[in-house]
Amino acid sequence: MRRRPLLAALSGVPFLAPAAAKASQGGTLTFSWPVSAGPLNPHLYNPNQMYAQAMLYEPLVRYVEGGTLEPALATAWEAERGGRSFVFQLRQGVRFSDGTPFDAAAVVSNVEAVLRNRPRHAWLELIAQIDGAEALDGGTVRLRLKGPYYPALLELALIRPMRFASPAVLRPDGSLSAPVGTGPWRLAETVRGAHDLFVRNEDYWGDKPAANRLLVRVLADSNSRALALETGEIDLIYGTDQIDADTFRRFATDRRFTATLSPPLATRMLAVNSARFPTDDSAVRQAIAGGIDRAALVRHVLQGTEPAAETLFAENFPYCRLGLRAPAFDRAAAAARLDAAGWRLPAGGRVRARDGRPLSVDLCFVGADALQKALAEAVQGDLARIGIGARLIGEDAGTSDGRQRSGDFGLIFGNTWGAPYDPHAFMGSMRAPSHADFQAQRGLTEKAEIDRRIGAVLTTTDEAERVETYRWLLTTLHASGVYFPISYLTNKAVQRADLAPVPFGATRYEIPFDRMRRA
């Protein structure tokens, strides 16, 4: 087995994963989430919830704290042909929770199921790079690539789409007859909109969870979750935006609870559409960059629970320590930039115009997300002070996702994905209209070159070339004004005081329920 340190990101992250609730040896842990867990197909996306997919399904290799890959369903791996293929030795004696053996044939059937639906996974370069998989024997698999691809092992560690369901439940169309994996939990019951019940997988090959049941109540908003925690209906709150900053601070001063913040995990930002009027004007994008008071957003809206961000990726991610800095907040300079570009305030008016067209943008957010709404209102106020009108559009998450894909936005909230996605996988997805990034960049004259260089950086075997290409890409995007970084995301955990703290998961999407226990 070769352990290979891959990322410096998140090294030494001592987060507190929600502690065990009412379940030191057996018992039930009660949690909450805004929506139901979904059908839990490991190869697909929404409405499948990532925290739940990670509970049922396991990868060949696992990303752990400190930027290291460690064994999961594979115990060892070796690169062949200069990184054009990998051979994996599979863990022996593992069975899916329906009793089906986990073996090389199971790996091949899952890989083929993903490849039959390649267009669904256009955001992830690994899927485009996979040529196929073959079973060398019952416990050995070769994964063939079309060419060298340096992040291959990192992307095999992702929660989706390359995890493994029992071949007995795989259907030709890519759906499942039931959610069956090798992980420490099984889905026992779903009542849509009410709860999901997970039970311990008693035949799990590794350390079994302390709790024998996890009940996840569907609570749509932060206030409902806070009330449920106070009344004892749930045992913990955990996640990036599962609780608002004011409530988190209140819990932090209440001796009945323990409230903990993780170090930075990813970037909270606004994507700015370069292909749509009026943000197709670079002067408007630069005025937005200098006219929004980032420090005030962090201080007043986020209540200091997230550090301010100036760049698309934090500098502790690979290839991102470039010394870039955001334009300083300067309302007068932003207004002067708009004046110089011909955007004038009409007599007695509040919104600038040029050639008879008002300087107004659609600022889009998820309406049920109280934090996005509060940030949007603060941004609207800042933009108004420099003569930019912002129409607030709050919609359900599905509609908001559709706007990201279609480009029907002026500004829209988004996040980078954190380890182990950043920067490579997040940037790889910029080349397809699966998120806001493609549309935000589409109006840039450099777009074709950006896409070409992203493809090149993911496949080059020359480290010096990779470093220089990332420098060009990140510097170009930074200067373009198509992103307004707000803050670096943290996970927030609030637990009852009688629960033992355990580390957060290695990524923002994995919640280590299996390690939760009573103090």
UniProtKB/TrEMBL annotation:
SUPFAM superfamilies: Periplasmic binding protein-like II. Pfam families: SBP_bac_5 (PF00496). It comes from the Bacteria. Residues 69-435 form the Solute-binding protein family domain. Coiled coil: none annotated. InterPro entries: CntA-like, Peptide/Ni-bd, SBP_5, SBP_5_dom. Transmembrane segments: none annotated. It is found in: Periplasm. Belongs to the bacterial solute-binding protein 5 family. PANTHER family: NICKEL-BINDING PERIPLASMIC PROTEIN, PERIPLASMIC BINDING COMPONENT OF ABC TRANSPORTER. This is Nickel ABC transporter, nickel/metallophore periplasmic binding protein.
